[in-house]
Amino acid sequence: MARGDAQVNWLVGLCLAGLIAGVAYRLRLLTAGGAWAAVGVGASVFGAGGLWASAPMVGFFFSSSLLPRLLGRPHKTERRTAAQVLANGLAPALCGWGATLTPAYAEAFWLGSMAALATATADTWATEFGVRFGSPVWLLTTGRRIAAGESGGVSWQGTLGGVAGACAIACLGAPLIGEGQLLALAAGLGVAGMALDSLLGATLQARYWCAQCHALTEQARCCNAPTQHLRGVRGLDNNAVNGISTLLAAAAGIGAGLLR
Ligand SMILES: [Zn+2]
Q1: CA of 30 to the centre of ligand 1 (A)
Q2: Is the pTM of this model over 0.85?
Q3: Domain count, the chain
Q4: What does the pLDDT look like over 213-223, one tens digit per residue?
Q5: 223 CA from centroid of ligand 1 (Å)
Q6: Which residues surround the ion ligand 1 when the cut-off is CB under 5 Å?
Q7: What domain range is 112 assigned to?
C-alpha cells in the first residue's frame, strides 16, 4: 500500500470511528469512556487495514449491540464502558499496529485480529442465545445446573449460537483473507476462545456474595456496598476474562499465520 493511501486510511478511520462511536454514545450503547476507547480501536484497525480489515470488527460491534433486540430479549440498557470495549477491542487494535509496523507479517496479524473478533463474537452470541433459548445451562467444570447468563455456563443452544457467530466473522473476513483454510482456522480459534472464556469464567473468575440482597454476584460491589469475596481470583472480572481469551486467540492466530 502506498504511503499516501495509508495516511488517507488513518484519516478516514478516525472520522468513521468517531462517527460510529458518537452515534453509539447518543443511542446510549456506550459511555463517554467507552466511546473514546471505540474511537481508538476503530481508528487503529481501519488505519492499518482499511475497509475490509474493519468488516469483522464492525460485524462484531453491530451484532453484539443488536442481537438482544433481534432475539426479542428485554435488553439491559447498560452502556458499554471503556473496560468492556477494550476487553474485546484491545487485541484487534494491537494486531492493527502489528500489521502497520511489520507489513511483511500483515496477513498473520489480520488472522490474529479475526481470531480475537471471532472469540468475542462467539462469546457474545453464545450468551445471547443461551439466555434466550438455553435451558438447561450447566457449569462447564462440574456439570452443575446454573442460571443462564452466569459466567462459565454452557448450553447446546448457546454453543450453537457461538459457533454461528464465529463463522459469521470468518465470512466477513473473506475479502481480507481469501483462503478458505485460514478462514476456517479463524472460526475454529473463535470457538476455542469461547470455550477458554467459559473455562476461565467457571474457574478463575471472582465470585462474590451480597449480604444486602442475599445473592451470588460477579461484582465487587452491590447494593451500594462492598460484597464478600467467595472464590476465584479477586479483581478478575468478566472483562479481564474476555481480555485474556481474545488476546490468547489473537496470539494463536498470529502464531499460525507466521508458521505457515
Ligand atoms: Zn446486592
Answers
A1: 24
A2: yes
A3: 1
A4: 999 899 899 99
A5: 4
A6: 210, 212-213, 222-223
A7: 3-259
